[in-house]
Amino acid sequence: MRTSSIHRAVLVVTLAAGLSPARALTQEELVAKIQAAGYSQVSDVKSTAEGTTAKAVKNGREVRLVVDSGGQIKEQKN
Question: What is the pTM of this model?
Fold first, then answer.
């Protein structure tokens, strides 16, 4: 019974923090998400402290991307 209460408390805290208890994206799903956002030639996908980074091309120029834990794709400043 105590374990059930702890699990419920963890779930409530997770949801209150705005985090999803869903699983993380696979690399293939992440690449598909980046491509759906208009990027091509996605490469060099790595997990870092700031999120998942990748290189890609958009509008003919190479960019460095960071995908945060919420799934937001942002171009990284050079």
Answer: 0.67
